[in-house]
Amino acid sequence: MIKVTIRKGQSVEKAIKIFKKRVKDSGMMLELKDRSFYRKPSDIKREKKKKAILRNYYKTLKEKD
User: What domain count does the chain have?
Assistant: First the structure.
């Protein structure tokens, strides 16, 4: 759970900005988006494999330069 404490003299807008940054950095919204609907395990494996292939492709391109 993400908590933000407001210090003395700190505005609420600043606290909201800090909270939003912490939520973004934690990856909570990405996980929530992923879990919003059911995905078959085979689809997850397929996506992981595609990402690995792309990662490898870009890595080889970077090494060539």
Answer: 1
